[in-house]
Design a protein that fits this description.
Layout lengths: L19 H17 L5 E5 L14 E5 L1 H4 L2 E8 L2 E6 L5 E7 L7 H16 L6 E7 L19 H12 L2 E3 L14 E2 L5 E2 L2 E6 L2
Parallel strand pairs: 5-6
Antiparallel strand pairs: 1-2, 3-4, 4-5, 6-10, 7-10, 8-9
Length: 205
């Protein structure tokens, strides 16, 4: 990959002389840069240490806030190992739901249970709140379901997400803006394959 210059400029994984340490340094510097400019900083954490027999992560989500953002935090509720909701004071108030969806090859009952819980989490928050759902949806959205996406076809998990967006009046925000393909993918497998699996969903007003 290095020989053919396939790496992204800011990529910190699967790259010679780069490691978890260099990735953490980059994240730390970005947070400090935002704090110096009094910007809002929200860092989402996925705990990938809990794994099933097949080696797939089974859950674990979190949220890290800058000191300024923390002062607006009203409550945090962990609904399941895969779903967490944080509410922030403001006018209007804001609800951020962090999710980690089962993989596309997981049992469909697990996917159904995850989305049923996500629907309950959405419905448990006031309808007038600004609602943002972020995380690893482990799904692909194709060009038939979004304007600007990395993939040509929508897979099973992507269909669940698209159906949820329609049902709950959400937009898939990171498919609304034209970007080059190198800015669309969010995950690279150990073999070098690239996928867009992480999304930001925002409730329409």
């Amino acid at each position: 990959m290095s020989k053919h210059h396939l790496h992204e400029p800011l990529q910190s994984a699967y790259k010679q002389y780069h490691s978890t340490e260099t990735a953490l340094i980059k994240v730390h510097n970005d947070i400090m840069w935002a704090m110096e400019r009094q910007g809002v900083t929200i860092l989402l954490l996925l705990d990938l240490t809990v794994r099933n027999r097949a080696g797939a992560a089974t859950g674990g989500v979190g949220i890290v806030l800058s000191s300024g953002t923390k002062r607006s935090l009203a409550s945090v509720t962990q609904h399941t190992d895969r779903t967490l909701a944080a509410n922030f004071q403001g006018n209007p108030a804001t609800t951020v739901i962090v999710i980690y969806c089962p993989t596309n090859v997981d049992n469909e009952d697990n996917i159904e249970a995850h989305y049923d819980n996500l629907r309950r989490t959405i419905d448990s928050n006031p309808a007038h709140n600004v609602l943002v759902i972020v995380g690893d949806f482990n799904g692909r959205v194709g060009t038939g379901d979004a304007n600007y996406t990395y993939h040509d076809a929508t897979n099973r998990n992507g269909k669940y997400m698209v159906d949820l967006a329609i049902e709950k009046n959400l937009i898939i925000a990171n498919t609304y803006f034209r970007k080059r393909n190198g800015k669309l993918w969010t995950y690279m497998s150990p073999t070098g394959s690239k996928y867009q699996l992480d999304y930001v969903l925002i409730r329409k007003k």
